[in-house]
Amino acid sequence: MKYVSTRGGQSATGSQAIVQGLARDGGLFVPESFPQVCADELSLMAKEPYEARAARILGRFLTDFTQEQLAGMVKAAYARFDEHGVAPLKALQGGVRVIELYHGPTLAFKDVALTLLPHLLTASAKATGENRQVLILVATSGDTGKAALSGFQDVPGTRCAVFYPQGGVSEAQRLQMVTQRGDNTRVIAVKGNFDDAQTGVKRIFADPEAAAAFDKKGIVLSSANSINWGRLAPQIVYYFSAYCDMLTAGDIEPGDAINICVPTGNFGNILAAYYAMRMGLPVNRFICASNRNNVLTDFIRTGRYDARREFHLTTSPSMDILISSNLERMLFELCGRDAGTVGGWMKALKETGAYEIDPASRAALTGLMYGAWASEADCAAEIARAWNEEKYLIDPHTAVAMKAMREYRAETGDDRPCVVASTASPFKFGRAVSAALGLPTDADDFTLCDRLSKATGWAVPLSIAELPTLPVRHKAVCTPEDMLSALMSAI
Ligand SMILES: *Cc1c(COP(=O)(O)O)cnc(C)c1O
Q1: What is the residue with the minimal CA distance to atom 1 of ligand 1?
Q2: In degrees to the nearest 10, what's the CA dihedral of 18, 20, 24, 25?
Q3: Distance, CA 106 to ligand 1 centroid (Å)?
Q4: Are 315 and 397 in contact (CB under 8 A)?
Q5: Could you tell me if 319 and 400 are in contact, meaning their C-beta atoms sit under 8 angstroms apart?
Q6: With contact defined as beta carbons under 8 Å apart, do 368 and 274 qualify?
Q7: What is the atom index within ligand 1 of the atom nearest the CA of 267?
Q8: Residue by residue, what is the 3-state secondary structure of 327-361?
Q9: Are 349 and 323 in contact (CB under 8 A)?
């Protein structure tokens, strides 16, 4: 399997795409074609455990590795999930099926890809003849940083450095990062917001002098950001897995089309669902759920992407984003893989902050996707509704998706079985969840999680409960201007 750039200027093997992250022409790597999974194979997969489903799907895309290699990587990565497994499916009323993607070490769906990425990356580096140490640089608004640190902890041949905005992440998220173990991990607070941290990281990546200085130390930089193909491919698996589990449970018959609803930020998770459909998974419609930063809802409804708007901090912070990087891969498919057209839209976005797609691409988009968004009040009401009506606890990101799905059903009358992606543990956002349930919030986040646990009978995950007792191992702070020197002295 070969990969091509959405800007048309480079093709690569799977290993090259993973090591490189971004294509040299500034585009994103996409598979040259979509391997097909037929109905008979789906029925076969329904009898397999998650790990076998994963090795099967990944094997279609990552042809540089043997099936045995992939099976080994998958087994090592997913042994880190708790007793519920990687993507258990919960049945709610009205044909709603929730895939809980938060049973990994950092309690958010990013673990599904970031526990596997270190294995894929080290094997890819080897396959491409790269023998320098790989330094993973991450700017995070909360979840990605911890998932990357945890995934790369003590992985030979790699290091991982994370920049987070000081004061811009939840207390649980901050403690998860600064207590990170592993001799190869570094965490640095930036006196600024997420954009400052992200801009600083991009500057380091683009700095030839920095690259030369790292090379002298035997280090090459790489990214664990969701534009990396190695993060996207593992996410395709759980949509197949959810469908297989629904077949097994008798929720659907072979060939039945389902709907899929995803709380969306950078557009990676919902894009993986779309790729599953392109591989043959029967899907009727994708519901793209946003919070108050509803640039994608407007785009799906009007064909015009306009990032020139106020940025809002919400209780679903991992979706507080105005430029969804992975949308570029979707645009590439919508316009019939015309790299010139995609390049034009991306240029307009960079120069003016907006672009408008042509009528044919727009028709393709609205045929596939429905966009809806949830206000903070909608989100809190969904958390309360799920608990009061079904005794099911959800985090604010999942609640945004539930609201969007409900709106879709009310507007279209299409109430066929719908898979909703649940992307984080409710205990990662204990304050917002407690407030939504009407519990008092006059204490620190850990006390709130304890009270939430007592009120609901749901156990606080160990990785949250233990946080206040762990030693703080990372205390570095820097200004946005000093990120490179802070990084150099940290390593
Ligand atoms: C990252 C994240 C999202 C958004 O996913 P994208 O792939 O960026 O669209 C949603 N929910 C949670 C909890 C996340 O951490």
Answers
A1: 318
A2: 40
A3: 13
A4: no
A5: yes
A6: yes
A7: 9
A8: HHHHHHHHCCCCHHHHHHHHHHHHHHCEEECCHHH
A9: yes
For residue 395, tell me if it sits in a domain. Answer: yes
Contacts of 130 (CB under 8 A, 6+ apart): 19, 220
Whole-number Å distance, alpha carbon 424 to ligand 1 midpoint, is 9
Contact 127, 15 (CB under 8 A): yes
- Please enumerate in sequence order all residues whose Cβ is within 8 A of that of 195, keeping only pairs 6 or more positions apart, or say none: none
Point out the residues that are catalytic.
110
What tokens does 9 get? 């200027």
Pairing of strands 283-290, 369-373: parallel
Q: Do you know the residue count of the chain?
A: 491
- In terms of pTM, does the model score above 0.90? yes
Cβ(282)–Cβ(42) below 8 Å: no
Assigned domain for 216 exists? no
- Cα gap 58→66, rounded to integer Å: 10
Residues within a 6 A CB radius of ligand 1: 108, 110, 143, 226, 263-269, 318-319, 397, 423-424
Question: What's the rounded Cα separation, in Å, for the pair 270 and 288?
Answer: 7
Token pair 């076998």 is found at 52
The dihedral formed by the CA atoms of 391, 393, 398 and 402, expressed in degrees to the nearest 10: 20
DSSP category for residue 127: H
The amino acid that residue 104 corresponds to is: G
Closest C-alpha residue for ligand 1 atom 4:
265
481: its two tokens: 């201007």
Cross-strand partners of 121? none
Domain total for the chain? 1
Residue 226, amino acid? S
CA dihedral (439, 445, 448, 454) in degrees, to 10, reads: 140
* Calpha distance 410→408 (Å, rounded): 6
Residue 464 lies in a domain: no
Q: What is the mean pLDDT of each run of 10 residues along the chain (491 residues)?
A: 95 94 89 97 96 98 97 96 97 98 95 95 93 91 89 92 88 92 96 83 88 94 88 97 98 97 96 98 98 97 96 89 91 98 95 97 98 98 98 98 98 98 95 97 94 97 92 96 94 87
Distance CA 269, CA 259 (A): 15
Instruction: Return the bridge partners of 12, or none.
Output: 3
What's the CATH code of the domain at 103?
3.40.50.1100
Please indicate, yes or no, if residue 354 is contained in any of the structural domains. yes
Contacts (Cβ under 8 Å, ≥6 apart) of 371:
287, 288, 290, 294, 296, 297, 298, 299, 300, 301, 404
**Domain extent at residue 260:** 77-107+230-428
The rounded distance, in Å, linking the Cα atoms of 163 and 140 is: 6
